[in-house]
Amino acid sequence: MRDEGSDALGSGPGAEVGLAAAACLFHGFSEPARLSIVRHLSLGEHRVVELTEHLGLAQSTVSKHLACLRDCGLVESRPRGRASIFSLTHPEATLELLAAAERLLSLTGDAVALCPVYGMDGTASLGHASGPAS
Fold first, then answer.
1. What is the domain-level CATH number for residue 53?
2. Would the pTM of this model clear 0.85, i.e. be above it?
3. Residue 47's domain spans which residues?
4. Residues in contact with 111: Cβ distance below 8 Å, sequence separation at least 6, in sequence order
5. What mean pLDDT is predicted for residues 55-72?
6. What is the distance between the terminal CA atoms of the chain, rounded to a whole angstrom?
7. Does residue 60 surpass a pLDDT of 50?
8. From CA 60, how far away is CA 20, in angstroms rounded?
9. Is 64 among the domain residues?
10. What's the farthest any 2 CA atoms get from each other in the chain?
């Protein structure tokens, strides 16, 4: 577990591990359905059935993405009867990250959406590439 005050993206020994972990974190947010679930959970805890109703997603889709988010440490669950209640693990930090992303998107305009690799019609979003060549 990393200290809250440590600089995961800094330089020096272990920086590549920190960068890899940061890339994994951002990958957790990279799928639109997962991002919708995270944003909805920022409003408070929900059961899977509530998320499917609110987001218009299939139960299997919501469950799959919640499992991914739980494995990433971004959401947690607790049992309530036969159902599980899901919530954000670190709601304040998650809301800060989403706010920073919205600010950056407002500053960059359409540049991200128009990116030939990662944009809306980019090769990565079409499943043709995993990113730019190294």
1. 1.10.10.10
2. no
3. 31-114
4. none
5. 95
6. 30
7. yes
8. 29
9. yes
10. 50
